[in-house]
Amino acid sequence: MATEFRNPSFLEPDLTGAPGFKKISPEAAPGIPHWTVTRGPVEVVRLGTSERPPSGAGQALRLKTSTNERDDPGCVSQDVSVPPGNKVIISWQERNESGGADRHPNEQRYRLSVKPVTGPANGVLVTDFRPEDHPDGTWVTRTIEVTAAAADVNVEFRAMIQGTRSPLITAVAVAGGAVPQPDLFGTAVTPVHATKAGATVTLPFTVGNRGPVPADGAKVSVKLKPKAPLVLLAGGADEVSFPNVKITREGGPVSGGFQVVLPADARPGATYTATATLTYEGAPVTDPVLTWTVILDGAVQPGVDVNKLLIFQVSKDTSELKHQHLVGVPEELIRAGIASAPVWPGAEPDGTSLICVGIASTDQPMDLAQEPRQLFTAPEGYVFTGAAEFAHFRQVDGWENVSPKTKLDTEFPDGDNTRLRIRGAQGGIPVPTLKGKTPGEIVFLGYGLHVKAQGTARPGPCKPGSMTFGTLPPMPLSGTIK
After folding, report:
1. pLDDT-derived band of residue 68, with 50, 70 and 90 as boundaries?
2. How many domains does the structure of the chain reveal?
3. 282 and 350 share a domain?
4. DSSP-assigned letters across all residues of 33-72
5. Which DSSP string do the residues of 192-240 spell out, in sequence order?
6. What are the phi and psi torsion angles at 422 (to 5°)?
C-alpha cells in the first residue's frame, strides 16, 4: 500500500478561532506543513459545517487569493512514496467557486501533474480540470490512475490563470494496488509412456503467460517432486527456470522437462506419479501444481514403432518446435510442414479453425488405421467439431488446397468434445516413409481436425492441448484465440 499524503485536508495551519482564511506565499514560514507552495500566494480556507465535503474535512485549499486578481496563480506540491511499478489511484475532493460569475474564461481551471510515471514520453502525467462544469457549491470527487516509475512521485496542483475565483481542494489521498504480475500457467504434457523397466523418461512441460505483463524467465521456477519409486536422474536438475527469456502472451509458451528413472523391477502396466510446483518470484501462481502420470507400457502396439514414427504439429507458429519430442525430426520435414501454413488453430471466439498434424515414418510405410491409441485434446478455448480428414502433401498452403482428402472416422470419448479419438478410415490411413527420400521428395501424412473457438475464450495463446499416438509420449498442441 502506498504511503498516505501528509496534511491531506489542509488542517494545518489550524484556523480554529481565526479568520476564515489565511494567505500563504511561497516564502512564508511555516507555510502549509508538508506541502510546498512553489507559486502564489494561495489560501487555506476554514469550512463551515454546512460547507464541508462528504469526507467531513473542515479546511481546504484555494489555489488563488480572493482579494487580488493580479496575484500569481497558485501552485502546491507534495512527494508521496509509492513502490515503483505500483498502480495507484490519486483522489481528492473539489468544489467550484459558488455565487457570482467568473470574470475570465476558464478562470477556475487548474492542472494536476504527477511525475515520474510510466506511459508519457517525458515521465510526467498532466491533466487539466474544469470545476465550472459542475453545479455551484457541489463537491465532486476526482480520481486519476498512474503507475509510479520511482520510489517517490511528486503530485502538484496548479492554477492555470490569474483571477480571484478558484475551486476548493481537500481530502487528497492515494490508494495503491499490487504491483502488476504476469498471469503464468504451467502445463504438464501427460501421460508419459516408458517401454522398459529402469528406463529414463522425460517429463515435458510448458510455461505460458495469459496476461499483458511480461514475465522474467529468471524469476520463474518449476520445482519437481518425484514420488517414490520414481527418482530423479543422477546429476539431473530438479528445478528449471528460464534465464534471459521474457515469457509473453504474444511469444507463446516456453518449454522444459525433467528426467526421471523408473524402478528396475517395474512391471508392464505400472503407473507412477510426479508433480512440480510453478512459482514466480518465489510465490505460487494461480494454478501452481503440474502433475504427470508415467506408464510402463507392455508390448509395442502393432504397426507403430516408437523409434520410427515422427509426429509434429503443422503451423506457422514454430514455438512448439522447441519440444524435445522433435529431436531427430529431419529439418526438411519441419520446413516443408510449416513453410506456408497458417497459424493453426487460430480463430476469434465462436470462429472455426484447424488442428493440422504431420506424420511420417523413418523406416517402412505403415497403416495407422489399426492403431487404437490416437487421442487428441484440444488447446484450451477450443472444442472439436467431429469433422476430420487426412491427406498426403509436401507443403501446406491451406487445408482447402490439399487434395484428395479422405474422411477420418472419429468419436468423442465419454461425449467430451474437447477430446477426439481417431478410430480409422475407409481404405486405411497410410503413413509414408522418409527412408531413401531426398528433401525434394519428402511427403508426409497430414491430419486436418476441425475445431471451433468457444464464445467465452480469452484472446491470446491457449493453454496447450496434447496428442497421443501408440506408445509415443504425449506431445503438446498449441493454439491461439484471436
Report:
1. confident
2. 3
3. no
4. TT-EEEES-EEEEE--GGG--TT--SEEEESS-SS-TTSP
5. EEESSTT-EEEEEEEEEE-SSS-EEGGGEEEEEEEPTT-EEPTT--SEE
6. -90, 120
Number of other residues whose CB lies within 10 A of the CB of residue 466 = 21
For 323-392, the DSSP string reads: SGGGTT--HHHHHHHHSS---SSEE-TT-EEEEEEEEEESSS-EEGGG---EEEEPPTTEEEEEEEEEEE
Q: Are residues 283 and 324 in the same domain?
A: no
Rounding to the nearest 10 degrees, give the CA dihedral for residues 265, 267, 271, 276.
Answer: 20
Burial class (CB within 10 angstroms; exposed 0-12, middle 13-18, buried 19+) of 179: middle
Whether the per-residue pLDDT at 79 is higher than 80: the answer is yes
Judge whether residue 386 has pLDDT over 90. Answer: yes
pLDDT, one tens digit per residue, over 150-197 is 878 899 999 988 888 889 999 999 887 555 678 999 998 877 878 788
Q: Residue-wise over 328-337: b if at least 16 C-beta within 10 A, else e?
A: ebeebbbebb
Q: Which residues pair with 81 in a beta bridge?
A: 152
DSSP state at residue 167: -
Which of 144, 176, 208 is the last residue in one of the domains? 176
Q: What is the largest CA-CA distance in the chain?
A: 102
Say how far apart CA 312 and CA 334 lie, in whole Å.
8
Mean pLDDT of 77-81: 91
Check whether the bond before 379 is cis (ω within 30° of 0).
no
Q: Looking at residues 364-386, what average pLDDT do you find?
A: 86
Q: How many CA atoms lie within 13 A of 467 on its CB side?
A: 20
Q: Which domain holds residue 201?
A: 185-299
Give pTM, 2 decimals.
Answer: 0.42
Q: Please, which residues have CB within 8 angstroms of residue 416's CB and are 6 or more apart in sequence?
A: none
- The string of pLDDT tens digits covering residues 249-290 is 888 899 999 999 999 988 776 788 899 999 998 889 988 999
Q: Do residue 349 and residue 203 come from a single domain?
A: no
Judged on CB neighbours under 10 Å (0-12, 13-18, 19+), 63 is buried
Burial label for 151, CB within 10 Å (0-12, 13-18, 19+), is exposed
The 10s digit of each residue's pLDDT in 438-471 is 666 767 888 999 999 999 888 888 888 888 876 6
CB of 355 within 8 A of CB of 422? no
Min mean pLDDT across 102-106, 216-220, 248-252 is at 102-106
